[in-house]
């Protein structure tokens, strides 16, 4: 199953507008052209009009049909810096600070999303994760009812019988280093929602550990056991179990012996890792050894869709994340 093609098809049913603020990067321009050609989202490139067009000409890209917004000349500049000032003045931000900060394409793009002039934003090809998420949290803040912003990877493993025909969500694989039990429970709930929104199938969540049902006992396993208890209590409709070793989570035969009676063991498609070490190593192992497509780190828990990119991403990767961001922007 090609999950990105399915997501692009879904995105075409309700076209969203996505901001790309790193518009002088040739990969971003190429991705914008791919999106425009395939027609699954509208793109706004944010940055210097002159510089973007010069880069497009340099690489032979036709961006005539793609909207460019230059913060320096935009008619929305005054509206945006004044709104940013209102949002941040209690944190010591002055009017002069706001006028300067909003000229940054990432901040300007976030204000476009905040003011509903766009539906989502994708950045990170030329910025660090913190440079993408800091303005997102300052301007957009967390989603209602959500206490934690976390990151996940959408994994598409070829020729795989496990998960949802080889499709998984891995979380948190990009942001929270050592979440406690409360945070793990939040990550589980957000990840289940992300899986169902993007894949269109029921999520089955595994709270992963090196232990299954008490086969080992330590502070590490107790954290996962407590997280499982919390998530079951707070989200009774969620299909979740733990603590589970990876093989018990995804292999039916192993689940039968290690987690007999579990409703989800052996069938899990949403994997919640106990910490960032495990999550990041796990996704990279699957990506490299199983030749899986790994899309992310994708964000969950922000009030509007914002996604981070790997700085080693290709134009195809960017286009895929644009499609994901567009679907995240649809009404649930």
Describe the structure.
The chain is of the alpha/beta class and 332 residues long. The protein has two domains: 3-141 and 303-328, 3-Layer(aba) Sandwich (Rossmann fold), CATH 3.40.50; 150-289, Rossmann fold (3-Layer(aba) Sandwich). Helix content is 45%, strand content 15%. The protein contains 13 helices and eleven strands. A six-stranded mixed sheet has the order 8-7-9-6-5-10, with helices on both faces. It has a five-stranded parallel sheet with strand order 3-2-1-4-11, sandwiched between helices. Strand 1 (17-20), helix 2 and strand 2 (42-46) form a beta-alpha-beta unit. The radius of gyration is 21 Å and the shape is globular. The mean pLDDT is 93.
Features:
single chain, 332 residues, alpha/beta, Rossmann fold, 2 domains, 6-stranded mixed β-sheet, 5-stranded parallel β-sheet, 13 helices, 11 strands, 45% helix, globular
């Amino acid at each position: 199953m090609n999950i990105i093609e399915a997501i692009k098809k879904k995105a075409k049913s309700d076209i969203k507008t996505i901001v790309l603020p790193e518009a002088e990067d040739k990969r971003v321009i190429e991705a914008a052209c791919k999106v425009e050609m395939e027609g699954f989202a509208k793109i706004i490139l944010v940055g210097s009009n002159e510089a973007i067009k010069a880069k497009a000409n340099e690489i032979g890209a036709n961006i005539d049909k793609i909207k460019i917004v230059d913060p320096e000349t935009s008619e929305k500049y005054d509206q945006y810096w004044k709104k940013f000032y209102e949002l941040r003045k209690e944190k010591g931000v002055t009017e002069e600070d706001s006028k300067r900060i909003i000229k940054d394409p990432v901040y300007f793009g976030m204000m476009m999303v905040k003011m509903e002039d766009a539906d989502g934003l994708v950045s990170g090809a030329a910025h660090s994760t913190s440079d993408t998420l800091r303005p997102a949290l300052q301007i957009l803040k967390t989603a209602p009812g959500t206490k934690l912003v976390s990151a996940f990877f959408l994994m598409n493993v070829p020729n795989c019988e496990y998960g949802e025909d080889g499709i998984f969500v891995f979380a948190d694989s990009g942001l929270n280093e050592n979440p406690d039990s409360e945070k793990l429970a939040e990550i589980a709930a957000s990840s289940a929602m992300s899986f169902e929104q993007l894949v269109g199938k029921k999520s089955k969540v595994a709270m992963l550990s090196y232990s299954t049902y008490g086969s080992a006992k330590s502070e590490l396993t107790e954290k996962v056991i407590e997280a499982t208890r919390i998530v079951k209590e707070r989200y009774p409709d969620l299909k979740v179990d733990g603590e589970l070793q990876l093989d018990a989570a995804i292999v039916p035969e192993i689940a039968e012996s290690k987690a007999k009676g579990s409703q989800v063991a052996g069938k899990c498609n949403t994997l919640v890792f106990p910490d960032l070490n495990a999550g990041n190593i796990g996704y990279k192992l699957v990506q490299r050894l199983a030749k899986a497509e790994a899309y992310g780190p994708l964000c969950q828990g922000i009030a509007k869709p914002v996604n981070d990119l790997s700085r080693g991403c290709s134009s195809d990767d960017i286009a895929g994340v644009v499609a994901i961001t567009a679907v995240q922007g649809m009404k649930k």
